[in-house]
From TrEMBL:
Keyword annotations from UniProtKB, A to Z: DNA-binding, Transcription, Transcription regulation
Species in which this protein is naturally found: Streptomyces sanyensis
Biased composition, class Pro residues, residue ranges: 330-339
UniProt domain HTH luxR-type: residue ranges: 335-400
Region (Disordered): 1-33, 323-345, 395-425
UniProt KW Transcription keyword: yes
Protein name: HTH luxR-type domain-containing protein
Length: 425
């Protein structure tokens, strides 16, 4: 054997040194949910006093429902609660009970559930508080708790988007230092969506789009990380085909678009969009105003646009432009439907025009001023779309000359059917 093969490696050699375990990241504080936690605390204090309560938590995917439930359970334990997901699980006597249900399909009411109707009905020897979390749009909504779940105290909580200070504080927790102003502008694009925000920060750090300094994190490059594209892909695959199609078409047309822009491209009647829009509004991906459909979240909009291949984006935009240039059937002018309908005064003035009278002569005949006659003539010109007396007679059906006029000037007769129903003054 050679010396190389027989030589023993030092104890400190990397080949023999034990690989240190990956550091465990400390649990980050919950940010921006102080008001919601205060409402949960009220319900828990009510239960600790011997009452029964129900707290429902609703939010779109990625809103942090699981993290919020964990914080609520920790708060309940600090208040002396026994926590779990099954009401029959035994616990220390005299301690209140917290039951946590995440995205439930309402289970049958437990024996003794009717006791919850009373304000201070104990559940066995413990008070009971239910904490139930739903995906937005899947819960009981305004209808309240399910039948058979009467309760003396209820709190309905919706996890909305985080405000900018809380979102930037989460970024600072993840990075260890606050973000610089340019980086903060990029992070605000996540719109306070907790999952998108966390994935954006982690993705930018992985791809070195930001640099963490001693006092702040600096922006290096503003680009969409790959892990965000993967997150969006999983979100899209959770949607039905018609929702995914509407979402991508709307994104290509712009952050805001109208239903009239979408319908010709999707080739569906308006009624077919009702349920699709309801589903997307429930996910928080789209919002519908009085006239427009919009993406509330700028980063999500950019991600959806980025998921559509460039040639298809160009084709969709050309199709939308072509649809805007073709007037809809309702916008096309209707063909004229014959002589316009005139009231009694208008009918009489046209008859006097047909007799060849001047404005002064018509005024004496009608007992009004020439100025009033001129006013009525202008209104008649506007109504019939003409600018002369001869054209007025033609449009209103007076076209046959007569030799029986007792007054000076030409006299014509109306076509058959003209001014039917017109009165005389």
């Amino acid at each position: 054997m050679t010396g190389t093969t027989t030589r023993q490696q030092p104890a400190s050699s990397p080949a023999t040194r034990a690989t240190p375990p990956d550091p465990v990241r400390p649990r980050l504080p919950l940010r921006g949910r102080e008001e919601e936690l205060a409402r949960v605390r009220r319900a828990l204090e009510f239960g600790a006093d011997g009452g029964c309560a129900l707290v429902t938590v609703e939010g779109p995917p990625g809103s942090g429902r699981t993290r919020f439930l964990d914080e609520c359970a920790a708060l309940a334990q600090r208040l002396g609660y026994v926590t779990g997901s099954r009401p029959g699980h035994p616990g220390p006597a005299g301690r209140p009970r917290l039951i946590v249900l995440h995205d439930p399909h309402f289970p049958a009411v437990e024996p003794g559930g009717a006791l919850l109707a009373r304000r201070h009905a104990p559940y066995g020897d413990r008070a009971l508080v239910r904490l139930v979390a739903y995906r937005q749009g899947d819960g009981p909504g305004a209808a309240g708790p399910p039948a058979g779940w009467p309760t003396a105290h209820t709190e309905r909580i919706r996890l909305a988007e985080l405000r900018a200070p809380a979102a930037l504080q989460i970024a600072a927790d993840l990075l260890g230092v606050p973000p610089s102003a340019p980086l903060a502008r990029v992070l605000r694009g996540a719109g306070g969506h907790p999952k998108l925000l966390v994935e954006l920060v982690e993705g930018m750090r992985e791809e070195q789009s930001l640099r963490v300094g001693a006092h702040e994190a600096q922006l290096v490059e503003d680009r969409i990380p790959h892990r965000l594209r993967a997150l969006l892909q999983s979100m899209l695959l959770d949607l039905p085909d018609e929702c995914r199609q509407l979402l991508r078409v709307a994104a290509v047309l712009g952050r805001e678009s109208t239903v009239d822009d979408l319908l010709p491209i999707l080739q569906v009647p308006p009624s077919a969009l009702l349920l699709v829009l309801d589903r997307l509004i429930g996910t928080g991906m789209l919002a519908v105003g009085s006239t427009r459909v919009r993406f509330p979240n700028e980063l999500l909009w950019r991600l959806v646009v980025d998921s559509v291949p460039v040639p298809l984006r160009q084709a969709l935009r050309r199709q939308a432009a072509d649809c805007r240039q073709v007037p809809s059937p309702a916008a096309r002018p209707e063909p004229p439907a014959g002589p316009p309908e005139l009231n009694g005064r208008e009918n009489r003035i046209v008859q006097l025009v047909a007799e060849g009278l001047t404005n002064k002569q018509m005024a004496r005949r009608l007992g009004i001023s020439p100025h009033t006659v001129n006013y009525h003539l202008k209104k008649l010109f506007q109504k019939t779309g003409v600018n002369s007396r001869i054209a007025l007679l033609r449009e209103t059906g007076w076209n046959d000359p007569s030799e029986e006029s007792p007054e000076p000037g030409p006299r014509v007769r109306p076509r058959p059917g003209a001014f039917e129903g017109g009165g005389q003054l």
